[in-house]
Every structure is written in structure tokens, then in C-alpha cells.
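My hope is that you will study the record closing this message with an eye to the fold:
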Amino acid sequence: MRNTSLKPNIKYLKTRAGFVLLFALLISSILLATGLGISRIILREIFLASLGRESSVAFFAADTGAECALHWYQLGQFDLDTTMPAPSRTIYCNGQIIGDNVPGVLKINLIGYEPNVINGGTESTFSFLTNPQVVTPGVSVKPTPCALVKVRFAGTNPFLPSQLIVASRGYNNCNLTSPQTLERTLEYTLKID
């Protein structure tokens, strides 16, 4: 005769008691692993997107530096005459005055800022901010992109060079010790007739 009373079968419940808990634990661990995997992919994509943006900033800083150097070369500012008076060895890039032997904006070595050498004979070097910002006390400032430009004459005859080489390094951040600083380089070689 079957047990028709409303009392639950204790023996049956004891053998099935942990199944629901185990099943819930299994489902929640699968959902957790899936969520963690998706979040890692999303974080990696965000990092790559910001890296691409900062790389573009560095590239455009290098392009700005190269264009400035080519502009001033066409105006005759870079030549082999090192006897030019100091006031005439001044150029303007992105609204900034860049003078001869004035400290640049890039701290190249640990000692100090590399000076600008506008008319150094066969090689001129200068640096400038490509996006200068007004600093307000108490307000955080985004990293400022900048460029380091070297203009050099080359060829077999040092007194009559046959090439002008403009190497421009662009940085997304002028703080070269920062691990987030990216560098992009453009180099133009022009034949001089």
C-alpha cells in the first residue's frame, strides 16, 4: 500500500538535498566566468582605443614640427652661415618664439633641457609645444604634446650639401619619463639643387 499521508518522504529528500544548491553554484560560476571574460575584452579594447588616439596626437605633433622646419627652410632660416647675428636666428612655430640657445620644452637628458640651436651650421635642433595650454591653478592639465625637430644638411661635400634631412619626433606628452608617453617620428629627405 502506498503512503498517502502528507508527510514528505525523508529518505527521498535526504538524497536530493544538495542538487539544487550544486546546480545554482554551477550556473553562477559559469555566468561569473563569462562576465569576467567579457570585461577583460572590453578593458583591452578601451586601452587599444586610447592608445590609437594618443598615437595620432604624437603623429600630428611630429607632422607639425616637420612642417614648421620646412616652412622656415623655405624662408632661408636654416643655412650654413653660422655668423648670422643672434636676433635673426629666431623662428616661430605654433605661435611660440623659438630662439637660438634658449632652452627648449623637452627635458632630453637628466641634467636639463636641451637648448635650441637654430643655425648650428650643418645641424639645427629645436623643440616646441604643439598644443600650448593656459594653466589655471587648481585645475588638472592634460598632457601637452610637443615636437623635437632636427634639421641637418648632408652630402659628400660639407660646404655644398646635396640633401636636407628634417627629422621630427612628436610626443603625446612632453614628460618623456612617463610610461604613457608615445613617440612618432617623421623624416623628410629633400634634394638640394
